[in-house]
Q: What sequence folds into this?
């Protein structure tokens, strides 16, 4: 059974750094063509892809947010971590992690999401 | 970066058929696969169509996907609409550097 679960703070102050962790089970991020991505969704708005890390360490970032994002993986712990610097209230959103397998960039399994509010 | 444009909302009656479009702005819709996700209120997205036309196991065959190069669009068609189909639907594609989601379409079944 494949599961992913996001964890992190529920409230972050503006200008601070947000760190969210995805802990997964049922697959290995060392398997060829496997990836884990982060997608966010502001309340009442659309999905926005943030970042993706592949089994081989290759990383992709949303170009508009690239300067603020860092994605890393710990294969032994089955975790992927996303860091976002200098947060702003517009970064308030539900943050999802999701598995991507194969070359078609399908996110086939999603976590439940974690709501992060940016407010002073 | 390319964009994917969807209608903001569509509505149709139970038992009818509805089609949701997803138009690619910049680049060819046929170059990279398109996926479709369903998101019910308060829930995470789930896949209803992947790789343009493929349906995951467990998704009813009332859901189908297609690509039209002439309009540079992908489409999600849901036939025999049920009230349980009421949800937000997102298309998603990619290029060598980016993953892009469409703006989402709210489907109302009334």
A:
């Amino acid at each position: 059974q494949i599961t992913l679960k996001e964890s992190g703070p529920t409230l972050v102050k503006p200008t601070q750094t947000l760190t969210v962790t995805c802990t997964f089970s049922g697959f290995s991020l060392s398997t060829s063509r496997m990836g884990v991505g982060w997608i966010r969704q502001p309340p009442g708005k659309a999905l926005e892809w943030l970042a993706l890390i592949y089994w081989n360490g290759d990383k992709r970032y949303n170009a508009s947010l690239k300067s603020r994002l860092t994605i890393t993986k710990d294969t032994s712990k089955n975790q992927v971590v996303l860091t976002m610097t200098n947060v702003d209230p517009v970064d308030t959103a539900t943050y999802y992690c999701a598995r991507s397998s194969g070359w078609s960039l399908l996110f086939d399994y999603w976590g439940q999401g974690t709501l992060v509010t940016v407010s002073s | 970066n390319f964009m994917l444009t969807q209608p903001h909302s569509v509505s149709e009656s139970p038992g009818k058929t509805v089609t949701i479009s997803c138009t690619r702005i910049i680049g060819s819709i046929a170059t990279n696969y398109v996926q479709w996700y369903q998101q019910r209120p308060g829930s995470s997205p789930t896949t209803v169509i992947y790789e343009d036309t493929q349906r995951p196991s467990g998704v009813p065959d009332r859901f189908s996907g297609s690509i039209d190069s002439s309009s540079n669009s992908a489409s999600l068609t849901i036939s025999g609409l049920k009230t349980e189909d009421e949800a937000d639907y997102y298309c998603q594609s990619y290029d060598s550097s980016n993953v892009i989601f469409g703006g989402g379409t709210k489907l109302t079944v009334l």
